[in-house]
């Protein structure tokens, strides 16, 4: 029996659609609140890719798919829900008002999570009568495959809500990471943005193209990041003397004027156009859905490759598969 | 027949040792110049791990190993060499003087490459009589597994030297990336440093531990970076409207005060100690060599997983395997 009864999702964009797919593929019924008349078509496309990826990931013993309902009526969506995941546009006031409404409409004991990639839970819960059950649960695209979900509580979030969320996301095959201090953009997005900003400078200054930068990542450091992150990789790079040696040797380099850390590149039309042209060229005429499929196949292959090693995302997958087996017996 | 006759390596540290392993495992004889009395012991340990990883990567049809000679005599090392790779400490004057000596001692047509992770080739070639044959060829740890090598020419580097280096590194199963404009730290290290600097801030400010930061990478974005880099991933994240939409939506976030971009954290003893303690805890009592083995096994598994997809590092591996087969028939 799942820890989730009825799931209500607010918003069916790239992230909300990904949540819907993960829940449905885990056999959970989903009511999706989305006023967009295109919502059903978009969800259908997401599910086509997600179903294929999930079947590759878990060839045997998958739960039977949950039932999807799409509605433009918020009260209908959250009525009777035990778990609510919001993935609306990133505007504070919009989200605050949405949570105030949901707070009044949903059952008292429903857990309410926001997919925001940067807004603070303390601000998100400001207009709620029962703010203790709200937290941020920030996932990563594609939500139906990547294990990470960052959990961030606000000043009024109850510790029990965090614990409940941990259990819930683990039951969906995910890896919850509790971000212990409330900070804008949390952990992963700050790291991604630091990398992205430097990458934008390299394109703007004509040092490298989008493709060259992607190659510099995926043929080198990206393969290390995927399984060990950055600290443990540098720990090993320090050789026998480990991290202390590494920091002594490479720490000072941070003071050299290597990276464009003092400013943010101006997002001119010209820069946006240059990058869009370069990424189009890189995509080589493949459609968005085709690229998505390639990405998903690669993610599945990497996670499965790490599974026998019981390492990183492979360890999460191994545990998830055991859970699914347990659910059947 | 290899494009490399005799290879001379200057310096047998983590990088130089990794080069030695890649060359030896490709059947090439190596003379290693290293005055360190511990050089033979260290090389023995590197080869133990590298041999295992390479046997996992290429279970069948490996070339027979080349012969390793270690010498403290520079003239002996470079005499008759067709290819010279320098991996000495990162001090400009030391490298300049080394290259001036090598320039005089080595055969006129020897290709000379530097493993520097940041110094400019124009400066490295300053004291050479035949600077046209020097370039930077910057590899990534572990050199015997990761495909990427950044090639950077200086003002006096001949275009033919770059072309010759490309052929040479491809023959070793690598992916040369020509960095078209000379810039400190090239491409990959700038990206890694941007990420690393942000990570250091997060630890310094007590937001997250080294392990939590590594988890935020390896369970999420790291899995995407390993196969697509950053631009193509964001292109997909933009949904049907692609990169233009993504930039319009997320570009402005770069102007928010999310990341600590204005300064560099002070590398106090306390910060170094905190990070070293956290990475030690994360390592869970595993030795450096043990961690290295785990990392290598994971890298092999990821590259092999991508090979049937003919994608990224998997495509390089596929081509390399075909080359090795071709060499045998």
From TrEMBL, chains A, B:
GO terms for cellular component: cytoplasm. It holds the Pfam family 3HCDH_N. Its EC number is 1.1.1.108. Residues 7-181 form the 3-hydroxyacyl-CoA dehydrogenase NAD binding domain. InterPro entries: 3-OHacyl-CoA_DH_NAD-bd, 3HC_DH_C, 6-PGluconate_DH-like_C_sf, 6PGD_dom2, L-carnitine_dehydrogenase, NAD(P)-bd_dom_sf. NAD(+) binds at residues 11-16. Gene3D superfamilies: N-(1-d-carboxylethyl)-l-norvaline Dehydrogenase, domain 2, NAD(P)-binding Rossmann-like Domain. GO terms for molecular function: carnitine 3-dehydrogenase activity; NAD+ binding. It is found in: Cytoplasm. Pathway: Amine and polyamine metabolism; carnitine metabolism. It catalyses: carnitine + NAD(+) = 3-dehydrocarnitine + NADH + H(+). Residues 186-255 form the 3-hydroxyacyl-CoA dehydrogenase C-terminal domain. The keyword Signal does not apply. Keywords: Cytoplasm, NAD, Oxidoreductase. GO terms for biological process: carnitine metabolic process; fatty acid metabolic process. Transmembrane segments: none annotated. Homodimer. PANTHER family: 3-HYDROXYACYL-COA DEHYDROGENASE FAMILY PROTEIN, 3-HYDROXYBUTYRYL-COA DEHYDROGENASE. Catalyzes the NAD(+)-dependent oxidation of L-carnitine to 3-dehydrocarnitine. Belongs to the 3-hydroxyacyl-CoA dehydrogenase family. L-carnitine dehydrogenase subfamily. This is L-carnitine dehydrogenase.
């Amino acid at each position: 029996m799942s820890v989730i009864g009825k799931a209500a999702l607010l918003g069916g964009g790239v992230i909300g659609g990904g949540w819907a797919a993960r829940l449905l593929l885990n056999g959970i019924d989903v009511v999706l609140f989305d006023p967009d008349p295109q919502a059903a078509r978009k969800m259908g496309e997401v599910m086509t890719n997600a179903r294929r990826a999930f079947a590759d990931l878990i060839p045997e013993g998958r739960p039977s798919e949950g039932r999807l309902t799409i509605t433009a009526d918020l009260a209908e969506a959250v009525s009777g829900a035990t778990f609510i995941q919001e993935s609306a546009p990133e505007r504070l006031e919009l989200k605050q008002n949405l949570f105030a409404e949901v707070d009044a409409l949903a059952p008292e004991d429903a857990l309410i999570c926001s997919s925001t990639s940067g807004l603070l839970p303390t601000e998100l819960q400001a207009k709620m009568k029962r703010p203790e059950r709200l937290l941020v649960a920030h996932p990563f695209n594609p939500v139906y495959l990547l294990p990470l979900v960052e959990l961030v509580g606000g000043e009024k979030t109850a510790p029990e809500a965090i614990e409940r969320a941990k259990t819930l996301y683990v039951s969906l095959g995910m890896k919850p990471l509790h971000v212990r201090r409330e900070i804008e953009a949390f952990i992963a997005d700050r790291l991604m943005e630091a990398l992205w900003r430097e990458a934008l400078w390299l394109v703007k200054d004509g040092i490298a193209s989008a493709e060259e930068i992607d190659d510099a990542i995926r043929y080198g450091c990206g393969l290390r990041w995927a399984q060990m992150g950055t600290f443990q990789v540098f720990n090993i790079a320090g050789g026998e003397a480990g991290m202390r040696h590494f920091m002594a040797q490479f720490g000072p380099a941070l003071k050299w004027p290597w990276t464009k850390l003092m400013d943010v590149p101006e997002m001119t039309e010209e820069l946006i156009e240059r990058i869009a042209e370069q990424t189009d060229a890189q995509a080589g005429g493949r459609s968005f859905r085709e690229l998505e499929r390639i990405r998903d196949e690669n993610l599945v292959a990497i996670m499965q490759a790490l599974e026998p090693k019981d390492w990183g995302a492979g360890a999460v997958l191994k545990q998830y598969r055991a859970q699914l087996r347990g659910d059947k017996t």
